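User: I'm curious what two different proteins look like when written out as structure tokens. Can you demonstrate?

Assistant: Sure. I'll show them one after the other, since each token string lines up with its own sequence. Here's the first protein:
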Amino acid sequence: MSTPTPFEAFQTIHGAPTWDDIVTGHDFGFLGTLEIQGWVPGEGPAATRLRALRGEDLRTFEAHLWAACAEAVGKTPRPGSTRWSQAQDRWREALLREALSAETTTAQLARRVEQLYEQVGCPEDMLVMLKPSQPWSGLPATVDPRAVQQFLSRTSRDSSHRSRFNL
């Protein structure tokens, strides 16, 4: 069985993504242009242009993505905004859940959690679950799977997966 893509993991945990999820997922490097172009809903001019980009025109993909998002929901989430933070939390949760369910050893889980820390960042309450690797000493990352599960349990209770602003 193959490992799901980040997009598949996201959809398994959260269902259909919002524009905020797509923009944030792209900014963190989880989504490629083809995945996004295959997802783009709507028939507005910006959405149509985004789906049609090919070849050299892909150099302007990000600007077209932002325009299509603004066309669909009024504005584009940016780092520091509430919408951005909520989407970042949804990505973090989906990828942690996927890692916890997929990895067979704590060493593998530690590598995945460390990679997620580096790619997406982590809130303070995530810091207890991982001791990062220390290349200068040869120590690998270590993780407490129970702490990961506890974090995810709190996330499920506390998160606002679909606020009214993410429609």
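Here's a second, unrelated protein for contrast:
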Amino acid sequence: MVNKILFWSGFGLAVRFWQLGIEMRPFLAQPWIYPIYASLGAGVGYYLQGVEDGQMRYLRETRDRLLEKRRRRAERGLNGNVGSEYQREQEGLFASPKMVVERGENVPEGMVERTGAAQ
């Protein structure tokens, strides 16, 4: 956290130096203004640190929710058998089309279906 605040404080000072360089004014004409620019930069760094912490907390919670959901699904034994019968039989933009791969007497169930994505 401190490194972000220090970086943005330095960035605030660099902005002040850049401003004075563009205006071609002496750097130490008003030395009391530098802490103001450094404080503004530090405020930006502190705000961005809070935003990053919030995003990381949201990602952690989402990851934990998904892992818990996967664990419960594995306990129920539904790893490869997700969705209702209607949803599994659908063809469409987000579904993998089913293709008949083998038929015959030597196949245990008489026919094996695999999706196009499984090949």
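A detail about the second structure: The chain is about 60% helix and 10% strand.
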